[in-house]
Specification:
The protein is of the alpha/beta class and 143 residues long. The chain has helices at 13-25, 43-57, 69-75, 89-97, 113-125, 133-140; strands at 4-8, 30-32, 60-65, 83-85, 103-107. It is 45% helix and 15% strand. Bound molecules: D-ribose (RB5).
Length: 143
């Protein structure tokens, strides 16, 4: 199983620690690239760090901030990153099946920890629908 890279800003720190523990309990290898406390910090710094690692290791990433919006905006500036801000299980499944998202963005001030867990599981367990060529064609149009 591939590693999963995780990062947050101060607003997402507690949820990051929670998800990290839950995912490790499930046998996942987690690479945490920060932040490491509740102290105020700048989310684009951690979005960029995570994207670099995701592309290097060709794996999934999870980014968490207050709403998930800033993280998704910052991550989607990076070429070959397809970051999806998801608030439901269905969005997470569709982000993988149709958009081949490689980064999941979550809002710690939007979701309860157990909702975030379910969304993360759905994202990590879903596959890109390779058989359906139109999804690939559309993704290739991004660049
Ligand atoms: C931090 O207060 C907050 O702005 C940040 O976590 C995030 O929600 C930005 O999109």
């Amino acid at each position: 199983m591939k590693s999963i890279v995780i990062a947050s800003d101060h607003a997402g720190f507690e949820l990051k620690e929670h998800l990290k523990a839950v995912l490790r309990d499930k046998g996942r290898m987690i690479i945490d690239v920060g932040t490491n406390s509740n102290e105020s910090c700048h989310y684009p710094v951690f979005a960029k760090k995570l994207c670099k690692e995701v592309l290097k290791s060709n794996c999934f990433g999870i980014l968490i901030c207050g709403t998930g919006i800033g993280m998704s905006m910052a991550a989607n500036r990076v070429n070959k990153i397809r970051a999806a801000l998801c608030t439901t299980i269905n969005m997470a499944q569709m982000a993988r099946q149709h958009n081949d998202a490689n980064v999941l963005c979550l809002g710690a001030r939007i979701l309860k920890p157990n909702q975030a867990e379910k969304i993360a599981d759905a994202f990590l367990n879903e596959k890109f629908d390779k058989e359906n060529k139109r999804h690939k064609i559309r993704i290739e149009m991004f660049d």
